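--- STAGE predict ---
source: upstream dedup step, 1 unique chain passed
mode: sequence only
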Amino acid sequence: MQHQRRDDFWKHVSFCENFDEYIVPTLVIAGWADGYRNMLLKALVGTDGRAKAIIGPWAHKYPHFALPKPRMDYHAEAIAWWNKWLHENNGADQLLQMRAYIQEAARPTQFREVDPGFWI
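--- STAGE serialize ---
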């Protein structure tokens, strides 16, 4: 409760304060319904190609059980990424710079199990 704004308490552990400090390849996964959705785009720009990104329709949850649907096989994505950079030449570094779920129009509602749209 003492740190409601972006002060030094948060900045010292924030990836986006100085992208040059982070030299490891990074996979950023976020959701359009997540409060941190702008971090994904900042990482793509700030890391000069060292980051890959996936953004889906989800809230702040793991994408394999998050709502709204469609969901994503988070475990397969994460394991392939880690395997690539730890020991295996599996092509994970050749993925598109960004994969995004483009949401189509939907009537406003308090809860939606599925957001209509498509992946690009």
